[in-house]
Amino acid sequence: VGSQLVLLALSTRHSVALCLRHTPFRFSAREAALHEAVFAKHHVSLEEFHALLTLNGARWARVAPGERRALAHEGAPARELVLLASGEGVAEASRGGVQLESLAPGALVGERGLSAFDCAADSDAAAVCDALSPVTVTCVGPLEYVSWPKRALVQHLAARPGARACIMALVAQDESRKLRAAEGKLVADEQ
Q1: Under 8 Å CB-to-CB from 181, ≥6 apart: which residues?
Q2: Could you tell me if 51 and 163 are in contact, meaning their C-beta atoms sit under 8 angstroms apart?
Q3: pLDDT tens digits, residue range 6-42?
Q4: Bridge partners of 63?
Q5: Is 113 in a helix, a strand, or coil?
Q6: CA 85 → CA 4, 63, 76, 150, distances in Å?
Q7: Residue 32 needs a FRET pair 20 to 30 A away by CA distance; which of 92, 96, 97, 191 works?
Q8: Cα angle 173, 110, 135; round to 5
Q9: Is the dihedral of CA 162, 34, 116, 71 positive or negative?
Q10: How far apart are alpha carbons 191 and 188 in whole angstroms?
């Protein structure tokens, strides 16, 4: 069974690589790696992935080795959705100066409010974009991330239901992981 899983994983990776080579879109190595590691799992098409990467205001950023950068501030509006893409650096979430968890590549920052987003209600866009961050997230490089302005992302998702479903699945998975981590920390603190 284990060897079959390894073969299946290699086959899937090879298929994704072939698709990325034979698409009208050109992806850099880091974009292809991000699609394979995060977006392909949520069935985000190459077309939709390209649309997300080229969304107005979307940007890649690199945190140099040893550099510290805040990605979110506790109590401040989180106006960007940040996806940690790669790197050996550390991203830590804290509240009130107490470290809550370390975030790994694939984790989201600033997703608060997105899970309750309803494309049918105009007021939701403001609520999502003005949602306050419950934590401060600081990273120390080397680390790369991609970010999107929430307002542009919300408008994009409202116009593309398929993309919205995929991104909501990504947000739900991330929130679930964070809740499990918080629950584990509470149990450990009680013991």
Answers
A1: 100, 101
A2: yes
A3: 444 545 555 555 454 556 778 999 999 999 999 998 8
A4: 143
A5: coil
A6: 28, 11, 23, 18
A7: 92
A8: 100
A9: negative
A10: 5
Span 103-148, pLDDT tens digits: 999 999 998 877 666 554 555 667 777 788 999 999 999 999 999 9
Which letter does DSSP use for residue 38 in this model?
A: I
Cα–Cα distance list, 28 to 32, 53, 168 (Å): 6, 11, 25
With CA atoms as reference, report the closest residue to 107 among 72, 131, 132. 72
Amino acid in the structure at residue 76 = A
**What is the H or E stretch that residue 18 is in?**
helix 2-21
Query: What six digits make up the tokens of 127?
Result: 């609520």
The CA-atom distances, in angstroms, between 166 and each of 40, 115, 131, 161, 186 are: 10, 12, 21, 9, 30
Alpha helix (H) residue ranges in 22-139: 29-34, 46-53, 123-129
Let me know: does 163 contact 72? Beta carbons within 8 Å. Answer: no
Cα separation, 60 vs 140, whole angstroms: 16
- Residue matched to tokens 């600033």: 110
Cα separation of 99 and 110, whole Å? 17
